[in-house]
Amino acid sequence: MAMAPATVAVIGLGPLGLVTLKNLLEKGFKATGFDKADVVGGLWNYRDDDQTTVLENMPVFPEARHIQRYLYDYASHFSLQSHIRLQTEIVHVDFDEKSEQWTVRMVKEGETTSQVFDKIVLATGINKLPLMPKIDGLDVFEGEVIHSAGYKRPSSLKDKTVLIVGLSNSAVDTATTLVGHAKHVYISRRHDAFILPRFIEGKPMDHAFNHRKGVIFETLQLLPSAVSSTIMRKFLTATTHKGFPELPQDWDLGTAPLPTRTPPVVSDTVIPHILEGNITLVKGLNRVTGPKTVQLDNGSQLEADAIVFCTGYKADYSLAGRYDPTLEQPEAWTASPGSNSRALARLYRNMFSLQLPQHLAFMGAIAFPSPAFQLYDLASMALARVWAGEHQLPTAQEMTAQVDQQHRWLVSLASEGTVIPGWVDGAKWMAWADEAAGSDVFPHLGYGLKGWTLWLKDRQLSRILMDGTPSPHQFRLFENGNRRAWAGARGEILRTNSSSLDKQA
């Protein structure tokens, strides 16, 4: 008699949870998704309160409501609704080592119930808890103090002098939306950044990068660190100057962090606003000195009516209890200023619990320059095949050694500056995930037998996969016995790259 399919609880139904739920169901698991919100979408579900969401509207990019609609349509297209429980908060989970099952306690409309599952995926992401730095004297500040998580509309800070703390994507987005509403906007930063335009040579910036350029980028990493860093810095400096021929006089790209440890800033408007005087760059915030005054790192004083901390987030895995992967921290990491008071998660491939790799996984702890939706589609495809027994994990000792090596690497990066705790070597992680997911993409893009065969049989597709816009459909393109190919994959890849194909015609 056939065994009943394993049951899986997917906690969190933002993009990470939705795609994980879909890929687990596709592999035959009896999966159920839970979210305390009344709709799917996670942070893409815009709210007026101080819960973390995107801004209500973003220029150039799709509005939040468009992404929210896409996620709703995704759930509808793949018939996920019958596997989803909304307005249901998971308040406690407990693993029984004898039965090897989880008891999941949940609350809906004030009623507490429990259900047993074989496996759990925590898909709550890393943007869970706002990270607020410790600033001396902040308690005496009488103006408004908020984290970017609580910033929703520029009208809330109308006619106020606003100090933005940080120079990240959220910082420049917040600063630029305040122009025309706030009395004046300051950006306080301890280093400058590479600012990449949203469009390069008429193409969206992310469309300017492809697999071939990624191979070149990874090859650079094989060179001595000083050499590869110099080459990369020159390239990014040239790209920044190409997008913005005129930079602020004191803008120092020599101190800008490289994308080997943190994403670059992408904005078309922040540099023009700085040059026009709408936004003023100042040094790092040192301390608060009065009800409406602050002192900067260079000793100068500044008056402000409001402070907005765009200082990132901390992950929260406390729901996992004694299986929380952040309970133990390397001393070298916590002692490093680059850790920025955030914890490292001890997870194999930034996904699997070392204690319960066949029963507990986490989605949202992987970070490197990559489209997030595509990244977690591949990650959850890999997870589903591992849990289905179609791809074997290494031994416990080997997984622990891999995590230790990963953490030593992150500690070395943190010695140079702030680094995201989930940062991974993108090429190595993708190669592992491609194999684990059974997609077989990268062997078809190399110079082995499969790569040459594709080039000979379908030169147009081979060229698009190497030089075109990356598309998630590629991971469902090849039939190799490990994963069923989707018949429409080739057509969608070509459609995604139709503009470049038209230029070649």
From TrEMBL:
It comes from Metarhizium robertsii (strain ARSEF 23 / ATCC MYA-3075). This is Dimethylaniline monooxygenase (N-oxide forming). Pfam families: FMO-like (PF00743). Signal peptide: none annotated. One of its GO terms (molecular function) is flavin adenine dinucleotide binding. Keywords: FAD, Flavoprotein, Monooxygenase, NADP, Oxidoreductase. The keyword NADP applies. The lineage of its organism: Eukaryota, Fungi, Dikarya, Ascomycota, Pezizomycotina. PANTHER family: DIMETHYLANILINE MONOOXYGENASE. Belongs to the FMO family.
